[in-house]
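Person: I keep going back and forth on a fold encoding question. Show me how you would write down a chain together with its backbone fold. Please set it down just below, with no commentary around it:
Helper:
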Amino acid sequence: MPHEPRTPRRPGEDPALAAFPARAPGTRRWCFADQLGPHFLDGPDQPVLLVESKAVFARRRFHRQKAHLVLSALRHRAAELGEQAELHRVHGYAEALDRVREAVSVCAPTTWSSRDYVLRRPGLTVLAARGFVATQEEFAGWAAGRGRQRLLMEDFYRHNRRRHDVLMDGAEPVGGRWNLDHDNREPPPRDGRIGVPEPWWPEEDEIDAQVRADLDRWAADGEVAFVGDDGPRLFPVTRAEALHRLRDFLDTRLGAFGPHEDAMLAGERWMAHSLLSPALNLGLLDPVEVVQAAEQRYRDSVATGDPLPLNSVEGFVRQVMGWRDYIWHTYWHFGRDFRHGNALAAHEAVPDWLADLDDGAVDAACMSDVLGDLRRDGWVHHIPRLMVLGNYALQRGIDPLAMTDWFHRNFVDGYDWVMVANVVGMSQHADGGLLATKPYASGGAYIDRMSDYCRGCRYDPRKRLGEDACPFTAGYWAFLERNRERLAPNPRMRRALQGLDRLKGLEEVVEQERLRGTGAI
């Protein structure tokens, strides 16, 4: 039977979901490493506590560039604040908090474990969470008003747009349409180029050099272990850098973002994406200011007679105030047990080649390219995550909780709240359909249509049997057969499951993929 997460508790029933106060004047503000922007303070002069905990990196093997990004951001924030901040380099949080002799407050952290920790800490004032468009109380009110209806992202997104008056003409959306998503699914250009400038890149400084030296020493001493390549640092660690990247995106890439938002190109790993998710998730930018900046750029372009494509602007706004906010709120709404969903009974371990980001072990062009980008950069955009990495794990029956942990550790923008809903719900369908109405499984034909990976690949996306059979094409049919009974009640899977009965050589395909297992493809 599909896993059913526990019934979400109303705010106040679970201490971690309590209605917290908004401000705590006269306190020193403890800012976690994802709360580094000025909007996490009650005033520009508020004293700050920053804690650098080596224990966080010692527990699990993180991508080297993720560790660098977090430490660099913490240390840069301390340097910016000067005497206004205390930076404690300790093994665990308690060691730092025990040293502070004044009243301390903290904005509610972004994960269940951290929130539980601050709520257990005596004398610590916990405030309402910041860094998202809607507050938790607002989302709870909206969800309660939905009654027994599914909490669809599209409905919440429209609610957020109306409430903040973003891309609205009175009561109607600009352009007369809410959802321009289908305008953003064009296949990539055949020449493999989308014709946008290279993104702006930050320059490393002496703080980065010290971070690199510390990480090298920790690894050499055996205190921590990393995966992935070291630098150069590609993502902002200061507010100034984050604002620079935002302006660069609005100036040079926003107009091209929409049409090929869902496309993949081997030679264009950034496409026209904003690359703002790491800065947003470090708290360097407020998502409201990002959305307002994009809308203002659109309205300015209309006023000058050279309007930016609305599908590009709306698609970007949808990512920031739609999907990002929705994922954050569903992380809390569906409760602590949501991460343990396993509706498709997937129990395979993450294979070593995937755990090690070993793109050299892989023949499939799509997987090799995406894994190589992840090894080098600690980042790939949302479609390779969903339709290559996630699609592979879904087809092969890899444990969704293990995949959630893998995504969390290997992506520079990965946090627990980000990955639980995205992986357990969206990618692996382990929630039984709470987030997505059907599994995001596809054969090689989709990858062929939306990328240039299949040209020259040793596998043929049209074949499901034989040495050159595409592992995604064959894996798709094996996945459906393995989960036939579990997916049968889903009306959106009816046509795909009917195709199983017409497929020639199904038993051979299933056996071929059983033997392939989770070996490098």
Observations:
- The chain has three domains: 15-127, 136-202+237-334, 338-516.
- The longest strand covers residues 48-53.
- The chain has 22 helices and nine strands.
- The CA atoms of residues 448 and 455 lie 8 Å apart.
